[in-house]
């Protein structure tokens, strides 16, 4: 199984080398748990049955004066466990060098996708000023995962995280693979509409904003939308994501499995869709 | 009176796990140089416990199964809400409650520099919300 959505923000080994990271994790990312050795991350994956996790950074240099992991730090973590991790890059959407920064992250650091978070990075994804970033991602053949919907980061606004803003990206860049993170919650129906209309648009399951994973996933994927939509129409575009360490991976795995999807749909959601989304780069060796 | 305190780290590898720490505690007592007194073993967390039992895998499984049965995961707990001071949801009420059942510490006499314990008594660190890197204190008090 593959987890398309994790943040390595509590990794003790990185914090020992970068003394600012603990403050950034607490104040900017808004997570206050105790740092843990990298081994804990890997054990959490083992317990959940996850073979590979995608590590996501956020470059909010202009909006917050920091990076929640740099591309270099992501690459270093991937190097420590190449068979367990794949790394995404992030770039500052307000920087003119953003397309070139993405280029370097992919070609020089071996990162395999791009993470953007319109709320905390304070940009609108349909703003043409950032389209050169999308153009470069499309040229490079790397997917973009957009934070969508509610986020827990302090000061991060909801409005630029509306999934429908991604329609402009999908139409202008028809070959670009896009993931609506967190299923765009609370705009779940909007996310569904995007996926129905644009096959390049995907969504991950990492939505958890109330109750327990079992309850919230059931509410979202059997009440807010019927489970049959995942089983039938969306089975090729939904990917498992946990949002670890805001939640333990195994709890999200159990919650998604409890939806009772067919073996075929689960195979797609837990593995095959992510493999296709990420492409055939060295990540799958 | 002399007081010797050590904080020890233990890496749990499962969601629930009984980790035998008897040797670790005995080592701290030996290093303390205290020959007459008591040793107190205390966990530093609210979703773990310290307990004492016979060091058999079957009893370890029975202990964990009983905790699961007494405090099921899927009940309607008030704790299952967003905790802004943590930046995440409180989805582990059952882990906290299981921890309360085991208690947070174990105390033994120390005599002639050794822990006085029954031949079948082992000291366990009980993980209930793992895998995580955890800490516990071993404090030796005496002369």
Outline the structure in words.
The complex is a heterodimer of chains A (285) and B (143). Chain A is 42% helix and 12% strand. The longest helix of chain A is centred in the last third of the chain and has 16 residues, at 263-278. Chain A has helices spanning 12-17, 21-28, 38-48, 61-64, 71-80, 98-107, 118-121, 131-140, 167-172, 188-197, 213-224, 227-231, 249-257, 263-278; strands spanning 2-6, 52-55, 58-60, 66-68, 85-87, 114-116, 144-146, 178-180, 201-204, 238-239. With 285 residues, chain A is of the alpha/beta class. Chain A has a single domain, classed as TIM Barrel. The mean pLDDT of chain A is 96. In chain A, helix 6 (98-107) packs parallel to helix 8 and helix 11 (213-224) packs parallel to helix 13. The two termini of chain A are 15 Å apart. Chain B has 143 residues and is of the alpha+beta class. Chain B has 3 helices and 10 strands; from the N terminus they run ββαββαββαββββ. A 5-stranded antiparallel β-sheet of chain B has the order 1-10-3-7-8, covered by helices on one side. A 3-stranded antiparallel β-sheet of chain B has the order 2-9-4, with helices on both faces. In chain B, strands 5-6 form a two-stranded antiparallel sheet. Chain B is globular and about 50 Å long. The mean pLDDT of chain B is 97. The chains are: A alpha/beta (285), B alpha+beta (143). At the A-B interface, helix 3 and helix 11 of A face strand 6 of B.
